[in-house]
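Batch 3, record 17
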Amino acid sequence: MVETTEAPSASEYIKHHLTHLASGEQHSLLDFSVIRWDTMAFSIACGLIVILLLRAAAKNATSGVPGRFQAAVEMLVELVEEQSSSIVHGNRTFIAPLALTVFCWVVVMNAIDLFPVDLFPRIAHMLGVEHLRPLPTADLNATLGMSVGVLILVLYYNFKIKGIGGFMHELVAAPFGTSKNPFFAVLLAIPNFLLNIIEFISKTVSLGMRLFGNMYAGELIFFLIALLGGAWAGFNTGSILAFIGHIVAGSVWAIFHILIVLLQAFIFMMLTLVYIGQAHEGH
Amino acid sequence: MNLNATLFAQTIVFIILALVTMKLIWPNLITAIEERRKKIADGLAAAEKGKSSLQDAEVRIRQLEVEARAKAQEILAQADKRFAAVVDESRTAAKAESDRLIAAAKAEIDSEIQRAKDALRDQVAALAVAGAEKILRREVNAQAHADLLGQLRQELR
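Prediction for the assembled complex:
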């Protein structure tokens, strides 16, 4: 729905919606000189919303009769506390709040997907911004950024719990074990080490990719549904059918997407806890 | 799906958000939750305690009731006994008093009879003497027979 004299084709429409507001054109797969302003702005805004809401609940928290908002936040906190205490065995003063942050932040970011797909780009267009993607979790940079954060924490806790020596030993001794014989020890250390490195990488990539993939696919389906309504060309059978199709498919997908929004956030939180919990336990 | 510096920025934002949550949000909420849990637990314990103390009180009340009933019974029995004793006592006392009164009356009557008898006897003696005097006046010297008359009066007495 770009304001041009002639309506854009379907592929143009989708391509337009998949273009980020970035600091520059990206030519290669990896280009760290580019930063995407839309992803950053929306994710930070979501983070601030989460922090401010939770802070509002925390500041007025009383052990007496809770208000409705406090009770709702407490339910969330208790859910996270329960999960984290059953998964991570050790000091959880940082891990439990981390899980709460992950869950709330991802929920709010995912929930942007439930806004009409043209709402934010349209507003941006009026303000003179040509391209905007409001959904941060449909940007691999955002999800992979968070999973790299998790990787850093996993490594940190590995070093903290097992010590440098212990962690190094585990890298070369697990999962195939080691041998007293120096020759076999080295022979076993190579696959052990490789497997551990692959494990860390695959954990990180899968964590980020899972969320990205779900949200990206969901967003794309919203674009396709939007195209149905966008096919309006006056009162004729085709347009009316497309219009009805848009309403039905849009409603159904949005309702289903509520589940995906919460489920993906929950999965992200649980996997974060699981990976950090593994760092607390030796093989 | 191109990777760029957004990734690092996002990582930093992620960690900052987690730190803020840890410092400003989590402790307040978890403290409130724990305190409320404790309050609820205390309240439940207090309710339990209240219930058991109520039961104790009920048992004690029943005990007191039984005791009071027994005591009342005892008091009643004592009163009955005392009543019977008082009635007995007063009956005895009354009987003694009436006996005494009867005896006194009898004695009085006896003494009255005696007095009447004495008086009668005196009068009879006097009459007899008078009669005897009247008869003897003509033939007997009063002086000569005074001793005799006195003796007679004595005898009649």
